[in-house]
Structure formats: structure tokens, C-alpha cells
């Protein structure tokens, strides 16, 4: 069997790395760019700094600052046309995962000459390179800055489109801890759990390799071990380490693929406006505990990365990791369960059935899916829709 690791994005990371953004933009041939962000970041000092640096480098810009939670199809299609109409030649996203997904999707659509992102949904479903991109993540979580995949929400159809491929990797990601200085604690908490889930999801797949495994385990070590210093104390070096570890976690899952946490979360995100980080994060300890049976040798490695005692039976060590995840949730103010006022528990069967379509819509090859139908994932072992129901059921108090 042949494995492949591919990550062409240039990482510029560390304290004061943002100061290079003007030269990096010019180095990519950007002569007039679209700055993509949200209202909160647009009013923050870091956004003013980016504009000043671009002005000093002689790189004009237009601004789109209306991003919402989840990239929105209407924004993506509108701003892709703006890029084409105004002769812009690059996209710089400054924000969390939703902002970066929006910017990537705009660059993809513009690169194809227009249309709708819905036309290019799926993996590798476009033939031309996306417009040049620089990503500046403002949370240590999504890892979207190093991902070829982007998620876009359709408000009309209440559906999430997943799209991307090798032609949509950002050219540059800038990881400067200055962006985390004013980030609210809860936002940082959700982002951290999102990054941890990327690492955990990548460790129990048929596509896991020694390279992706080593990156995922080291990212867990940094993310879990640095929570106090990064989220609560806001120490610059700890925040810088968290940003880099977040990218490493996504570099791992980007090659070892997303696992069952993401597959089971997608129907809640698409049809019930569940925040991505909360959806995958609440699922993460339960999916880990389920997946432990398929790779018992991985379980003590995960425990060690979490700073836990890795001795004993597989079940005992897996229980230890699961309990540590819930303790971490308590420490950082992350929910342990889904809110029944948001999604009622009686929706579990339909959520599991929808998960049977898979992340990329590749499921339901047979007619009339039922609880015995297999959910298509890269996870080791097999998971049926019925087993998906059982995992989901544990996520409600």
C-alpha cells in the first residue's frame, strides 16, 4: 500500500510573524486583495494592523466584514463575483474557521470564473486553481488555514456543502499569537476542543500513517498540556504553541482524513445550526471510547499525549482518557452534552440516518437504508447507522 502526505501551505509562525503579511502578499503577486473577516475582528486592533501593513507595502484592498457563524453560500457567491468584477487577485482571511472557510470558498469560485460554490461541492470537483490566499487564524482551533477543504452553509436549503481539493490549499498561513490576546475565553475553549478533535479523529482511521500519527499525538500533547497557559494566562509563547499545534492537528486529519466525530456531527450542523466545534467536541470522547476497540495499541499513546497513566487494560486506559476529556470540558467551560432545547433527543434516529450519507455524500449505495446500513467513514472497523444512534444517545444528559 502506498501512502501520501501533502501539505503545500507555507507556515509563517511565531511572535510578530504578522508583520510579514505585506511582503508575503506581494511575493504571491497580489496587487489588490479582498480582506475577509467578521464584525468582531473588523473592530479589533489586529485588523487595523493588517490594513496598515498592507498599505505600507503598497497593496490596496477591499473589505468584506459580514461573515457569520459558518461560511454562508450567499456571501461566498456574492463576494466571488465582486472579486471578478473589481479585478481583485487575492484573498486574505482574518478570523476563525468560518471566516477562513468563507475566504477559501470565495477564492475557489472566483478561480473557476464565477458561479456558485454549490456547483463545485464535493472533493476535487473543479479544475482551476483557486485565487491566491493568505490565512490569518484568530483562534487556535479549526486549522482551516492549512486545509484543502472548506464548509459552506446554505441558509435556504439548510444544508452544508463540503468542497475543496488540492487546488484550494491556501498559499500562506500566518500564525501570530497577537491574534489571541483579545479572543474571549469561551471562543478559545471551543476552538481548542475543535483542534483536539481533529487530532483524535485522525488517529483511528484506516488512513492513519506514522507521519500523521506523530503530528496528531504531539499536537494533543501541546493543546491539552497548554490550556492553562494559553487560554487562561494568555502567555504569548503558549498561545503561539497552541496556534501551531492547531495547524498540526489539521495537517494530520487533512491527510489521515476526518473520522466519525465529524460524520455524526454534520447532520446537526446542517439541519439544526449546531456550532461545528461544539458538535464534534461533544462527540469526541464518546467516539474515542468507541474507536478504542479497533486500535488497542493506539490507546496508551493517546493517554500519554494527554499526560495520563497509560498502564493497564485497554478499557481502563480508554476510560481514563474519556474521563480526562470531561474534566477538561468542566475546566474550560465547554458543554459535556448537547442541549435538548436546541436539538431534542428524539431526533437521534433521524440524525444517525442522515449521517449514513457520509461526509462527502457517498453513502446509501443500497436502497432503503436501515439501522444495519454501514456509515461510510475512514474509521477502523465498521459503524452502522444503529451504532451511530448509540454513540449519539450518549451525548444527551
SSE blueprint:
Blueprint: E1 10-13, H1 21-27, E2 33-38, H2 39-42, H3 45-57, E3 61-67, E4 71-72, H4 73-85, E5 90-95, H5 97-111, E6 122-123, E7 133-137, E8 149-154, E9 159-164, E10 172-175, H6 185-201, H7 210-225, H8 227-232, H9 236-256, H10 260-272, H11 276-291, H12 298-305, H13 314-332, H14 348-355, H15 385-393
Parallel strand pairs: 1-10, 2-3, 2-5, 4-8, 5-7, 6-9, 7-10
Antiparallel strand pairs: 8-9
Helix pairs in contact: 1-3, 4-5, 6-7, 6-9, 6-11, 7-9, 7-12, 10-11, 10-14, 11-13, 12-13, 14-15
Question: Any descriptors?
Answer:
alpha/beta, 47% helix, four-stranded mixed beta sheet, Rossmann fold, Dehydroquinate synthase-like, alpha domain, 397 residues, single chain, 2 domains
What's the oligomerization state? Answer: single chain
Mean pLDDT metric:
94
**Percent range for β-strand residues:** 5-15%
> What is the CA-based Rg, rounded?
20 Å
The sequence of SSEs as H and E is: EHEHHEEHEHEEEEEHHHHHHHHHH
Major beta sheet, specifics? 6 strands, parallel
User: Looking at the structure, what is the overall shape?
Assistant: globular
Unreliable spans are none
Q: Could you tell me the CATH topology label of the largest domain.
A: Dehydroquinate synthase-like, alpha domain
N- to C-terminal separation? 43 Å
Number of strands: 10
Q: In the residues, how many domains can be counted?
A: 2
Structural class computed from helices and strand pairing:
alpha/beta
Amino acid at each position: 500500500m502506498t501512502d501520501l502526505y501533502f501539505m503545500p501551505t507555507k507556515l509563517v509562525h511565531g511572535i510578530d510573524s504578522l508583520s510579514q503579511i505585506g511582503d508575503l502578499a506581494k511575493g504571491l503577486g497580489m496587487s489588490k486583495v479582498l480582506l475577509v473577516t467578521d464584525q468582531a475582528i473588523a473592530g479589533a486592533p489586529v485588523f487595523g494592523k493588517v490594513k496598515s501593513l498592507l498599505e505600507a507595502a503598497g497593496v490596496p484592498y477591499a473589505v468584506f466584514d459580514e461573515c457569520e457563524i459558518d461560511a454562508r453560500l450567499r456571501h461566498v457567491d456574492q463576494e466571488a463575483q465582486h472579486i471578478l468584477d473589481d479585478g481583485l487577485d487575492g484573498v486574505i482571511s482574518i478570523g476563525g474557521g468560518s471566516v477562513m472557510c468563507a475566504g477559501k470558498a470565495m477564492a475557489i469560485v472566483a478561480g473557476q470564473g464565477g458561479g456558485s460554490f454549490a456547483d463545485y461541492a464535493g472533493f476535487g470537483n473543479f479544475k482551476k486553481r483557486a485565487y491566491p490566499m493568505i490565512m490569518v487564524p484568530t483562534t487556535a482551533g479549526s486549522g482551516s488555514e492549512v486545509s484543502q477543504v472548506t464548509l459552506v452553509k446554505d441558509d435556504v436549503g439548510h444544508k452544508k456543502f463540503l468542497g475543496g481539493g488540492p487546488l484550494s490549499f491556501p498559499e500562506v498561513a500566518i500564525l501570530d499569537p497577537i491574534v489571541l490576546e483579545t479572543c474571549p475565553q469561551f471562543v478559545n475553549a471551543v476552538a481548542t476542543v475543535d483542534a483536539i478533535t481533529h487530532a483524535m479523529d485522525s488517529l483511528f482511521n484506516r488512513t492513519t500513517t506514522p507521519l500523521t500519527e506523530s503530528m496528531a499525538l504531539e499536537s494533543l500533547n501541546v493543546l491539552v498540556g497548554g490550556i492553562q497557559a494559553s487560554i487562561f494566562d494568555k502567555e504569548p509563547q503558549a498561545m503561539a504553541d497552541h496556534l501551531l499545534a492547531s495547524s498540526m492537528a489539521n495537517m494530520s486529519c487533512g491527510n489521515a482524513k476526518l473520522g466519525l466525530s465529524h460524520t455524526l456531527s454534520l447532520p446537526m450542523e446542517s439541519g439544526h445550526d449546531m456550532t461545528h466545534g461544539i458538535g464534534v467536541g461533544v462527540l469526541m470522547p464518546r467516539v474515542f471510547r468507541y474507536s478504542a476497540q479497533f486500535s488497542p495499541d493506539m490507546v496508551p499513546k493517546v493517554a500519554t499525549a494527554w499526560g495520563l497513566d497509560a498502564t493497564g487494560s485497554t478499557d481502563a486506559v480508554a476510560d481514563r482518557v474519556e474521563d480526562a476529556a470531561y474534566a477538561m470540558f468542566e475546566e474550560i467551560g465547554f458543554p459535556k452534552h448537547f442541549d435538548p432545547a436546541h436539538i431534542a433527543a428524539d431526533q437521534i434516529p433521524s440524525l444517525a440516518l442522515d449521517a449514513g450519507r457520509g461526509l462527502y455524500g457517498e453513502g446509501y449505495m443500497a436502497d432503503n437504508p436501515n439501522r444495519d446500513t454501514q456509515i461510510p467513514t475512514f474509521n477502523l472497523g465498521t459503524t452502522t447507522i444503529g451504532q451511530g444512534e448509540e454513540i449519539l444517545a450518549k451525548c444527551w444528559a
